[in-house]
Model the fold of this input.
Amino acid sequence: MSLVEKIKDLAHAQREQVIEWRRWMHRHPDLSQEEYGTMEFVAERLREIGLNPKTGIGKTGVMAMLRGGVEPDSYCVALRSDYDALPITECTGLSFASENPGVMHACGHDMHTCSLLGAIKILIQFREQLHGSLMFIFEPSEEKYPGGARMMMEDGLFNEVTPNEIYSFHCLPEMDCGKVGMRKGKYMASTDELYWTVKGLGGHGATPHLSVDPIVVASHIVIALQQVVSRNAAPMMPTVLTIGKIQEVGGRTNIIPDTVKMEGIIRTFDEKWRLEAHEKIRKISTGVAEAMGAECDLFIDYGYPYVFNDDACTQQVHDNACAFLGEENVEWLDLRMTAEDFAFFAQKIPACYFRIGIHEPGTPFSNLHRPNLIVDERSLELANGLIAYNAMMALNNKIKNG
Done:
């Protein structure tokens, strides 16, 4: 029996266990930086599997090592998942829907975590055959700045062992279950959060000439900022600038407020242009406000860098996925403007961040971060098998230093 067949059989045999784990996590979601229950759940599963996890890394993260039977100190491959949930009220109608009001695993992190747990349960059965060691990273707070990856590294995640390669995946609702995809090089955008405070002079709505209306000023700023992408970004440089929230502080039908607050994001794929865009946004915002007799304060929360997939690591995932699933089920993907704090790991270590489809063919599509997101649970069996197979092949190949 081939290694692929052995791993597929093991993944199928533990299918119900992995689904049970995932449903527990789905019922008990934790928000970013509050994942104490999730941390203990993951740590207990790791102990049951036979590992000795370290908890509390980056406040609520978990790490465990599996030392192989052949030259365990010669090479290390890391596997990472995330496990925080979102402040969303679930409306899936599932029997195992969230029991935490207003909190939901609407980004599939429960699926990611339990797929990795399933992969570890497979890998430990091959411990004596492993050429090197495996590091398992369960990351908190992927959804909230400064990001669990950064928090864990700053808390000494790699003090004792720095992996030679690192792999992670994210579910993809628009991709059918049974398929996977990846992209070499730049894959996901950097992201920065933008916070404006536009200060005018409030007054009576019937006497606007005695006021400086911050709502009008903010509106002009929003329109002017469209030039950052349309006239300042190079046409070949993907860039998104979105204002997602506008809120007046005070105000009513006949009251002009003193202040308007706005929030948004900028995303792109080049560090030099990223900083230039910050400066253009600042100059446009303050300049428009000043020209209209108002003031504008802008805070830019410098967020995650863009995700860069190492060519060799990504080719390896592609080849392993073809061997495990068949070439017809493996796709090369386009750039995505979504962001991911896995980028912090990928800056430090050769990496591949790939995608696994979770859409049940013939059913309605729901995107990530939506209250009706449903995961086709057959994807868990595929994921834990593929993760395990890729990890074993990565240790065997030692693509960077072997």
The chain has a mean pLDDT of 96. The longest strand covers residues 165-176. The domain at 190-301 is CATH 3.30.70.360 (Alpha-Beta Plaits). DSSP finds ten helices and 16 strands in the chain.
